Amino acid sequence: MNAFPDAPFGPADRLDLDAVPLAVIRHNGIRIADLSDAFDAGYSAIALTFAGDVLTPAGPALAIYHGDPMDVFDLELGYPVVSPPENPIPTASGSVIIGSALPSGPAVATTVLGSYEELGAGWAGLVERAGAQGLRTGSVWIEVYVSDPSTTPAELRTDLILPLA
Fold it and tell me: Which candidate, 35, 38, 13, places its Cα nearest to that of 129?
C-alpha cells in the first residue's frame, strides 16, 4: 500500500513509504497558531509555480510536521512532484520552494472523513491504535489532503500517516 491510495485507509493500516519526491516550503520553529497563515501563503505560492510550468504535481497537497505538533515544530507544506527542484525557487511571497521527499520505511495510516476540526481526534485514535499494536511511532506526522479544501467539510478526506521508529 502506498501513501496516496485511491481508497481511504482503515483504522490503522500498515504501509511502507517510498521516498516520493516533493516540492515544499519549509517553516522552522512554528506553532499551531501559525498554521493558517503558513498554509494560505504556502499553497498559493506553490500553485503559482505549477501554473508557470516550473514544477509538475504528482499527487495531492500534504503537510509534514517534524517534532511535537502541540509545541514548537518544523513544517513542510507542498506536493509530490514528478521531479523535485534542484535549486531553491523563490516565490513572490518571499518564501522559497525546495526539494524534499517523504520519509521512507514502515508507517501506519488512517483516513479522516469530514471537517479538518476532526484531525486532532483522528491523530489521537491513530496513535492509540498504533500503540495497541505494539508499534513505536517517530516524531514525523504527515497529513495528505486528498480532497480539494473548497469541498464542503462533510466531503473532505484527509489521510494521516505516522512513520514508525
Answer: 13
